[in-house]
Amino acid sequence: MKKLIIINGPNLNLLGKREPDIYGSLTFNEFFETVVDKYPQVALEHFQSNIEGELIDKLQEVGFSYDGIILNAAAYTHTSVGIGDAVAAIETPVVEVHISNTFDRESFRHMSFISPNAKGVIVGFGLQSYELGIQIFL
Questions:
Q1: Active-site residue, from 23, 66, 76, 130
Q2: CA nearest to 6, candidates 134, 138, 136
Q3: Is residue 23 annotated as a catalytic residue, yes or no?
Q4: Which residue, 8, 24, 57, 133, has fewest beta-carbon neighbours within 10 Å?
Q5: What is the pTM of this model?
Q6: Which is catalytic among the residues 46, 66, 76, 98?
Q7: What is the pLDDT along the chain (138 residues), one digit of tens a residue?
Q8: What structural domains does the chain harbor?
């Protein structure tokens, strides 16, 4: 059984409330329940933090023992050298995901410190971006 984790960064705990025109009306937990049911062959976990260091700690914790990481570092994608370095330092492959099309938003969102060390990047498919990330590892 594949062991995967979804790691979410700042403000993603507000999914379902935050800017529903961009992020939709489902909470992450509601969405997560559907993918757990849809992929019973996967041991799937999720973690969310608004704190950069906690995201780095989680990457280091799972980065040598899991089969895959689906990472939405949110705003830290564009600002955190530390998270980019953590992705480079671990062995577990990382797929970077974004709910919105970051290239259709402010110009600062067009740059990622994660992408150069990720297995791939999925942007702009709403919450389905996470499901596409899961499928990459199957």
A1: 23
A2: 134
A3: yes
A4: 57
A5: 0.92
A6: 98
A7: 999 999 999 989 988 887 777 777 888 999 999 999 999 999 999 999 999 999 999 999 999 999 999 999 998 998 899 999 999 999 999 999 998 766 566 675 667 889 999 999 999 888 999 999 999 999
A8: 2-136 (3.40.50.9100)
